Amino acid sequence: MANNKRLTTSSGAPVGDNQNSLSIGPRGPLLLEDFHLIEKNAQFNRERIPERVVHAKGAGAYGYLRITADVTKYTKASLFSEIGKKTEAFLRFSTVGGEKGSIDAARDPRGFALKLYTEDGNYDIVGNNTPVFFLRDGIKFPDFIKTQKRNPRTNLKDPTAMWDFWSLSPESLHQVTILFSDRGTPKSYRHMNGYSSHTFSWINAQGERFWVKYHFKTKQGIQNFTREEAVKVGGENPDHATQDLHEAIAGDDFPRWRVCVQIMPMADAENYHLNPFDLTKIWPHGDYPLIEFAELVLDRNPENYFQDVEQSAFEPSNIVPGVGFSPDKMLQARLFSYPDAHRYRLGANYSTLPINSPHATEPQNYHRDGAMRFDGNGGSSVNYEPNSFGGPAEDPQYKEEAYNFEINDRAARYNHRDGNDEYTQAGDLFRLLTPDHQERLIDNLADAMQTVPRDIQVRQVNHFTKADRRYGEGVARALGIDQSEID
After folding, report:
1. Which of these, 19, 109, 242, 374, has the minimum number of CB atoms within 10 Å of its CB?
2. What are the boundaries of each domain within the chain?
3. pLDDT by residue (tens digit) across 232-260?
């Protein structure tokens, strides 16, 4: 079939020879004036942007959120305003600690990052496949992630660093227990739940605020690998979950999730028996049951992975009227760190990329200039505010106080471990597991800790023991640690 498309340089100049460099004689040196050679190689050198510091390996798809129940007494957010309403969505799944070429089957939390293209702008729900996390204060996040990366001397993964940090950070125990259970190795992205993990807030039309947690419950059913299965699949097909997601959607087997929310009235938070803004804790469903209000469906694969999945940028600071934040210290830190990471990785104008820009409304602001500005840059319109020339201005009807409750306390660096119960929920989770699941959890932990120095092993086993004596005894026995060494 004839090709009628003419190859050009980036400036549009036609290319007469794309097979041979310009040289002095057939064996001679090349000429600097071969601008096509230089352009091709210079462009190629820059085709890889810096990978994400975390969540580097990922897969994504388009779909929609459809409202199935009335929640308007809790939130005035327009995307939740009526039963049957659909909002376009893009969901990116990921592993957390590995590099871009790492295996999908790694024992790792999975990112669950959702972008909703609402008529009021983009709303991002940036969570994981676990309802809790290793930390409760964002100041520790860089330290934690460094333990999951490579040793600066050997450039190898470093179990000693991981367990040294975890054993010195008892608040991590709940998430560690989840991670080393079967849920640490999901069978696919379709067969796992997603969670906002953080506490957010909903605000209704009367200005009342409610604390909320999102839960995305897979309709495909939870399916996980054992450690041995994950190792086998990771060696046979490092991209198995990416392939599974793509092929399921291409075959019209669209993944679906029930979208639920836990809702806590503001007054409850003051006297609740645990800190409702602590990312290492769940809200017991007996106290705050799941309320199902929507369905999330993925029904379209991206046409170009780099354009959509690699360049997608999610940030919990992207909210819409009717939705707000909470005093969760990890969330508060992420409000800064996520958009800052995108400005570094993708450039100052990352939000103007098609995957990140609003699809249902046109942004109106005074952002100008910067690298890779490709959207007209505001044209000849005024670039400051206030102005006398009809530029966009604030709309007081959307003004909301950060919190409609008083905070009267002094600023200090409070010890987040003082008075915190780090063990009950981890122990409750262990006791919920079936005996065979408990056995696999203990075996996975012992396997992961076998090369770690004995003093760190003992310190960590003490945490397991405080959560549940059988839990600690099982890990100690698997590691060959005598009970006399345990506190």
Report:
1. 19
2. 58-133+188-358, 424-485
3. 999 999 999 999 999 999 999 999 999 99
pLDDT, tens only, 363-410: 888 889 988 888 899 999 998 888 899 888 888 887 776 566 677 777
Instruction: Calculate mean pLDDT across residues 134-143.
Output: 93
% of residues, the chain, pLDDT over 70: 98
What average pLDDT is seen over the chain?
93
Phi-psi region of 328 (alpha: psi -120 to 50; beta: other; left: phi over 0): beta
Check if 174 is active-site.
no
Per-residue pLDDT reduced to its tens digit, 116-136: 999 999 999 999 999 999 999
Per-residue pLDDT at 153: 96
Of the residues 36, 55, 215, 342, only one is catalytic, namely 55
55 as an active site residue: the answer is yes
- Residue 388 is encoded by which pair of tokens? 């006398």
**Strand ranges for 46-182 from DSSP E:** 58-67, 86-95, 110-118, 121-128
Q: How far apart are CA 353 and CA 310, in angstroms?
A: 11
Tokens of 305: 């992975």
- Distance, in Å, from the CA atom of 226 to the CA atom of 233, rounded to the nearest integer, reads 11
Instruction: List Cβ neighbours of 323 (8 Å cut-off, separation of 6 or more).
Output: 75, 77, 123, 200, 201, 202, 203
| Model confidence band, residue 310 (pLDDT cutoffs 50, 70, 90) | very high
Q: What is the DSSP string of 233-278?
A: HHHH-TTHHHHHHHHHHHTT---EEEEEEEEEEHHHHHH-SS-TT-
Q: Closest Cα to residue 138, out of 328, 404, 365, 340? A: 328
Residue with tokens 């092929």: 247
One CATH from 2.50.20.10, 2.40.180.10, 2.130.10.150, 3.40.50.2300 for 58-133+188-358? 2.40.180.10
**Which one of 20, 36, 122, 128 is the catalytic residue?**
128
The predicted-structure confidence for 24-43, as pLDDT tens digits, reads as follows 888 878 888 887 888 777 77
